[in-house]
Amino acid sequence: MLKKIYWNFFKRNIFGITGPIRVLPDFIIIGAMKCGTTSLYYDICEHPCTLAAAYDEIGFFDSNFHLGLNWYRSMFPRKKQIENVRKKEGMAITGEDTPFYFWNPLAAKRMQKILPNAKLIVILRNPIDRAYSQYQDVVSREPNYTSFETIVKNEISMQETYPNSITEENFEVFNKKASYLLKGIYVEQLKIWTKLFSEKNILILSTETLNSEPIATLKSVFQYLNLPYYKIKNPQHQKQKKYDPINPKTRKLLIEFFKPHNERLFKLIGKKFEWDY
Known about the structure:
Helices cover 47% and strands 8% of the residues. The chain is an alpha/beta fold. The protein has a 5-stranded parallel sheet.
């Protein structure tokens, strides 16, 4: 306990010292989880006009908000660094990626107050594949974990208790109880962000399109960030893990579960992704 208190004090007071001479992010990849946010972030940071944060998934607007704004600033380049790149390249930006932001309504509210004009990027993956990827990530650490089929059946049986929307009040409850499927009901999460941020400040991508059309997708990202075109030599998103396929019966069950939620999402964003639904 004392070690934790000491570490939090160290992070807040030592790391935050340089905060005043540093900048805040111009863009943030807010989610969704297991949709390729980190890979996309690395691709963006390959652009010569982009300066990376100290590390990815900073989590300030989520779990590290108590550390204060100076601590958050300390994660980004110094103002002088930005000026130097701007002189050399014509412009300079910095940003971060924390996929858990998209899922947390409190993160949206905090971000809107501090960075109301930030450029937000949301990348969404077929919710079935997203859930399975999250499961595989857990299994890699806990080999004897409950089967994916059992988890799906249990969460679907809970669907009558699913909230109409994720709120600050019910977030912690559903974060623990039904995270695999509920995290894939993107429409409810996205509605929170679209109420707080301008439509022109939210770019919505699909993981599948990024994988199949990387050059065109990254070009649209750079245009959105007002960056000049730059060809990424080795896009990170092409290096995805491979798993055994989902049981066909389980996949069919999930297709039916997500179908109405996906339809609401497509109506909200005005376009349709090529997902099996």
